[in-house]
Amino acid sequence: MVSPELLLTAVVFLPTLWALFTAFFEPKATEAIRYFGLFGTALTFVLTLIVLWQFNPELDVKETHAGYQMWFQMPWVPDWNVNYSMGVDGISLPLVVLTGLISFLAMLASWSIEKHVKGYVILFLLLETGMLGVFLALDFFLFYIFWEVMLLPMYFLIGIWGGPRREYAAIKFFLYTLAGGVLMLIAMLMLYFNSGRSFDLITLAEIGQGNIAEYVFSPTFQIAAFILLFIGFAIKLPAFPFHTWLPDAHVEAPTPISMILAGVLLKMGGYGILRIAFPICPYGAQYCAYGIVALGVFSIIYGAFAALAQTDFKRLVAYSSVSHMGYVLLGMGVWKISENADDAVYYWQMGVSAAMFQMIAHGISSAGMFFMVGVLYDRVHHRDLNKFGGIAGLMPQYTGIAAVLFFAGLGLPGLCGFIGEVFTVLSAWQYDHMLAIIAAGGVILTAGYILWTIQRVYFGPSYKGPHAEAIVPANSRELLVGYVLLAFAILFGVCPNLLFYEMNPTIERFVHQVDAGYDKALEQLQAAPPEGVETTWIP
Amino acid sequence: MFSTLLNQILSDSTGQPFGSLQLFGPELTLSAGIVLMLLARLCGIDRRLPTHWIALWMTFIAFSLGVFQFVEFSRSDLGTVEYFSGLMVFDRFSALFRLGLLLFLIFTITLTVISGIPDRDDAPDFYSLLMGASVGMLLMGGANHLLMLFLGVEMSSVPSYAMVGFLKGRKASSEAALKFVVYGAGAAGVMLYGISLIAGLLGTAEFPQIAIQLQTLFAGESAALSNPAIRLLMLGILMLLVGFAFKLSVVPFHFWTPDVFQGASAEVGGFLSVASKSAAFVLLVRTVLAFVTPASSADLGQIYLTLGLGIGVIAAITATFGNLAAYSQTNMKRLLAYSTIAHSGYMLMAIAALIVLRAGLEPGSTGYDDRCARAVEGLLYYLAVYFFMNLGAFAITALIRNETFSEEIEDYAGLGFQAPILAIGMGMCLFSLVGLPPLGGFVGKLFIFAAVYDSGFVHPLMWGILAIGGLNTVFSLFYYIRVMKTMYLQERPATARALRVPAWSYSGAFVLILTLPLLLPLGTAVQLVSGVAKRAAMSLFAGL
Q1: Is the Cβ pair B474, A189 closer than 8 Å?
Q2: Smallest CA–CA separation between A231 and chain B, in Å?
Q3: Helix, strand, or coil here: A69?
Q4: Any chain A CB within 8 A of the CB of B481?
Q5: B431 with B508: CB under 8 angstroms?
Q6: Among A94, B211, B255, B414, which is most buried by a count of CB atoms within 10 Å?
Q7: How wide is the angle at C-alpha B187 spanned by C-alphas B184 and B193, nearest 5°?
Q8: What is the pLDDT of residues A466-483, one digit of tens each?
Q9: What is the count of residue pairs from A and B with beta carbons less than 8 Å apart?
């Protein structure tokens, strides 16, 4: 067993260290820099696997720190009660490992980057630090820093190495996320001042759930904080009215960065809602639950229709992400308060599990889809769906992998996309029949656009678009990335329990704690009429 | 009579371990430096020994004296020491400010040496003005009397006017200087009138006496606005604030700023935007604390609260205006001028929070002093960050100008890959100005926002101001990132002048020394500076 301080710090900061080393390379030694960067991401992936290996989902809660394993805390800015605090539980662990894997594969896919390779690798590694830090941080201040740290590398990665409209896409991404970040900052200050100056997410959750007598987050306060936090996270997710940055950013970003964006960055929105918004503001969450579910369902349908209308291959995949992340919102929101409370909590637990599963599955399938588009784009330098056709004959092995990955996105039984979709819809049935039916209808639309895409791109008699001569079978590096993603898509589709085993104990506890927290807030509301924001002060 | 006064000052130890002249050492050293430089030119020594060495060495000696005093003073149990018969005050707050300003002076002089802005003939003039202005700012930092307040403001302003017009033969420069003088003179006049009103009403001009006089003046009388004496007092305070608003370029007294910054050289711009702003803020904190005391009566407290909220609204307007107006700028210095206005707005929010907390909270309630001190701490931290990020931005503008002879943003195209060290440095400064972690600007902004949020418990309007402040962060990204976009996302035209600024040169090293502190310690090892700032801020409240 490696000490948690060392292990988690190494996971987060190894890429930074690697970026620092990379800075000393000769800029012209592009091949060496690529291999060095690949080695760094591989090493980070191995470290995340060690975290996975050290994590014991069956460990009794009493032996963990409020459910977190490998938890540690060190004072960072004692005057302001800021701590350097990290830990993993069943919600963050799969995302950490996913980040390690997708980063490694994306780096492997980065051989297509030709200009300024050194700068690219450095920014890529800094981005990885930000992503891993977000999933591991257990102090709001630390979380916020990692959250914002990702912005700069991402801006430049899209802006320098992106497609023709890269400047617009990069600034749009930056502005949207920064706006969300500012809302989160205000929520952070609200929580800080009403909790006797604490940034600790565990303490804040305890207060939010009414387990600490001195401080109370009153119901109105919870609603206000939840809405601020939710908008901040929904921008990243992205949910319907805040999604417009996504198609631009995904389309203009270079292939590996699209993989990262779809595979990891979107999950931060969902993770933030589960880690911060729900546990700290149970009353606010329940208050907004119907809105969340409705937003999720709308995103599913809206994203699917938008995808149907696209002629740009990458844009289609981008809109499919909007649609798929709708299932995540749907699953998280199906929290019904009814007479038969135990039953309702059971369905909610199912919904949250399914939402988590959907995040991981989408991380694999969408990263795969973007990579498949990228492989094709590298050869023919266009993405117009109507000019493709007949690729199956020219690149048979590639087409096989692509078809399975697209089917995984479609949600074909036996592949990873199926589990998340079916269980979110199932849990939604108990919540609201109408919404569940509409969400299930989304599956048909998804099947529609994905099958139509496969037909237009891969089948057909022959390729008649530009650069026909450049279409050569995929090389071994591309096949490796494809096969790894394919393997995970099938593995999680056949044995979903591999994931549920890691997640479920945490999610079960999470659901019951938040539910109890809501009950306490409700009691408080019934005992006393709602009042304004609490103004407790403890120096 | 003169000899008695002199003797009094020389033997002014009155049982204290720190004599007046001793405490005044750094200022005297700077003044001696000015005399030395002028004498050196008289004797022709400046032909052999470049003037900047004299300036640098004398500043360095002053800085060392300041460090020595800071350490000595921290060891003693003294909270505050008044010297020069109560005209000046020395406490940790002024000691810290003095250190910061002298360090800043060292950086500025080094920058002018690297960029070579005053030529050999002009150097004694330039450095005399620079150090003279600094002496004025040091006086502002320790002022304990309304008269010293005015003297300090004027002493720092007058050399600034000349420095702005230092690029002789450039029309824009002369025009800027003239504008600056006219505005400055007007503001100074209004300020002096305000001071005379206050002093006439209260019968004292000493800061510690003001609160006591206010109490006796309004003892048993209503201190509401219906009382003519209160109206007079408020008029005086408002006029005083006009003077500050001019120095801080707060809307609507900001009009001089863009022209002055564009007309002056970037080095002078950097000096003005950081040094003169921080001196004015430090002085403003002292002034505010002299008037707004826990002993203020309830009526007076209400008026102060309104005043604080008003300042908060003006701060929000200033930040918004600065950020929106910066958007359409094409000249780097002009853009930084508007950014300076915006940042004055952010920092003024801390002052507003301080007034609101001081006037609105129940004196003696838990954490009363602590909460007020945190507002000052936030301001000090922001100033410390501002030191590096704004001087860094101006310095890099100057260094790029030396290579490309242009300060237009469009001429920065493609610099990112040609002069990486300058571009990365500029990026760190600008993103710190936006307030992105892990750079210092984020921490500073967070501290100020925290104070503003805290003051929202007194009056919810402050929460609205906080929301506007947060929104401004998003606005400001637009124009700062435009510079980075030009540097990195656009190709350098083939006809453009190539840049050669290697990392291992004086300029490269200077940029590194100036920008790395934004990341470490200001951005990450926060406790290091915030602890010092906290103690300095607390020293203002301990005696009250």
Answers
A1: no
A2: 14
A3: strand
A4: yes
A5: no
A6: A94
A7: 140
A8: 888 888 888 999 999 999
A9: 86
